Amino acid sequence: xxxxxxxxxxxxxxxxxxxxxxxxxxxxxxxxxxxxxxxxxxxxxxxxxxxxxxxxxxxxxxxxxxxxxxxxxxxxxxxxxxxxxxxxxxxxxxxxxxxxxxxxxxxxxxxxxxxxxxxxxxxxxxxxxxxxxxxxxxxxxxxxxxxxxxxxxxxxxxxxxxxxxxxxxxxxxxxxxxxxxxxxxxxxxxxxxxxxxxxxxxxxxxxxxxxxxxxxxxxxxxxxxxxxxxxxxxxxxx
Length: 238
Description:
Elements: H1 2-19, E1 23-24, E2 31-36, E3 40-47, E4 56-58, E5 62-66, E6 70-76, E7 82-86, E8 91-94, E9 98-104, E10 110-117, H2 120-124, H3 132-142, E11 149-157, E12 160-167, E13 172-178, E14 182-186, E15 190-196, E16 202-206, E17 211-214, E18 218-224, E19 230-236
Parallel strand pairs: 1-4
Antiparallel strand pairs: 2-3, 3-10, 4-9, 5-8, 5-10, 6-7, 6-9, 11-12, 12-19, 13-18, 14-17, 14-19, 15-16, 15-18
């Protein structure tokens, strides 16, 4: 008789959650604000197995990157529950505005990096800077000399170009220029050396889930100095 009792209890808890008052994303305890400027708010999200977030609002378009695989039950207000399986590094764009809560139904913590696009309204109406098809071909040409390295454009949304890069140990991305600012999200642990023209080399370590806002206007090469593969996502802003 324990199973029916537990099932009823879980159903009751989910029903209570669905009818609970909504909170702003900044008041949702599983969303940890780690960076903010005029363009973005970056949250590290972690939900333990068999627990759920509070019902919270997404008032801006956002881009999320999964850190590790996960399985969640996603309940958007006034819509039916949907179960979602996510792969490590899977990156999605989601349009505002809505309220929802997420329950981790997997065997491990659900982790992601959620990037709110604070200028989404103006970016939606802006002239696109990126041509995803052309840029993919350009990047393929730039990476032709990279041994054991791949980079691909995932999508362009709200004027932001989102790419995923994977570098094997020792792989070097040859000289390239960053005109615009970009946000780097570490999917795996990273050890990268950046050789910026006119400056001394810099070495940086990132843990999976770390992120960094990097201003544009520089030319460099990038090397994976780790003994392990490097995997990261970049959001390039217009």
